[in-house]
Amino acid sequence: MASGIIEGKPQAPSRLPSGTSPNAVVRHATVDEGSDGQRLDNFLLRELKGVPKTHVYRVIRAGEVRVNKGRAQADTRLNVGDVVRIPPVRLPERAADNAPAAPPREFPVLFEDEHLLVIDKPAGVAVHGGSGVSFGVIEQLRRARPQAKFLELVHRLDKETSGVLVLAKKRSALTHLQDQFRGRSTGKTYAALVWGDWPERLKVIDVALHKYLDADGERRVRQVTTSHDPAAEQAKRSITLVKVAQRLGWASLLDVTIKTGRTHQIRVHLAEAGHPIVGDPKYGDFAKNRDLARGPKRFERMFLHAHRLVFAHPVTGPEVVCEAPWPVECRALLTPAL
Prior knowledge:
The chain is an alpha+beta fold. Helices cover 20% and strands 30% of the residues. The chain has three domains: 3-97, Structural Genomics Hypothetical 15.5 Kd Protein In mrcA-pckA Intergenic Region, Chain A (Roll), CATH 3.10.290; 102-179, 2-Layer Sandwich (Pseudouridine synthase), CATH 3.30.2350; 183-334, Pseudouridine synthase (2-Layer Sandwich). Strands 8, 9, 10, 11, 12, 13, 16, 17, 18 and 19 form a ten-stranded mixed sheet that branches. Strands 1-3-6-4-5 form a five-stranded antiparallel sheet, with no helix packed on it. A two-stranded antiparallel sheet has the order 2-7. Mean pLDDT is 87; it is low at 1-23.
């Protein structure tokens, strides 16, 4: 995060709805390495936590935000050493008071240097707050590491999914790694346990996916298999590679590699193939999941684990291989099979 230097002369705060308290001083923040290359609007949203996004854009348009004493646009890219004038604003006290603070928490570290942090995310923990979740991995790590100037998620995992999760400790690392993910040059392998006997011939699933909100406002994903589908133009090509690792009779253990990283991609592709992931609460076999949760092993999570991730180090270049060990509850479910 950029360092802020307080200017002594108070000014009238920009207007916000009543019932708010003023922070009536101009700040000048010097851009450090962690914010190098960041857009001005994103920089301000981080600096002005709690201020509505619409208000941030309004003060930019009004010319109240300056970069090196000159007017700037929301999409202006910042460089190390730039000085950003941040106008006085009012912070909504009620929203801040009601929001529960994220408890500081560290997670098992798989790899770490000055550029990257790779952790083993447990199932049941969201990667970030939002959509009814007060906080997630990123908020907890920032609380646990207050000295960190920059810490951002490189990619996402579903709340129900465990395993390898990459975070960037510098903006340059973030942009380089995100380019690798977009360019499909990373190797992601998941362990998935699905109901039934997976067909040996089905090794590649290349079916487009479309995100939508259901009647309850819940995010869902479905396959689009024909150009006549109304969502055909919005659907995105999605490629999943499947290899059977072990046949258990009642279920199949799969090694799943994804060439595209779409929302709920593995979960939907496997479910639509007739073999939903064991324990999947959204696309799974709810009756079987319930029986398994009530059975002797009381398995109460989704069996999808981001086991292995391979990528090129964004600064030094060599290949980085990160592997997350199997969660205890997953291993126990397969005992004595494993």
